[in-house]
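Lab notebook: predicted structure, single chain.

Context: the supervisor wants predicted structures on file for every construct in the current expression panel, including those that have not yet been purified. This is the next one on the list. No modifications to the sequence; it matches the entry in the shared construct table.
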Amino acid sequence: MRNENAVGNELFAIIKGAALALGVALLSTVVFAWVLRYAPIGEKWIYPINQTIKLLSIAVGVLVCVRGEKGFLKGGSIALLFTALSYLTFSAIGGNFSLGWVVIVEVVLAALSGVIFGAIAVNIKRN
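Prediction complete. Output recorded below exactly as produced.
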């Protein structure tokens, strides 16, 4: 039987990973907004760059916070929590809480990337 402390540690790692990913996404978005202000980047590049920011944010959150076993489960959980938090945060900032098929696709892709990064994270040799 698993120790309650171990379950609490895993839950804390998931929350910490999602919070780290959200912080990376917010900081990256601010930097990207600053770049957009001064660089002539076409509108067709904004969505792919935003998606790349989300993917890299999930990667950082998962690779830093996932240890031990069941990396795919922890990574997927971090990605799903990050996606919910980032949707709420960026919707609040933008003032638009619309749900559509794009949001569902983003949730699925985020979960898949979290699962992949989680599997990678538990197989990385760390000191």
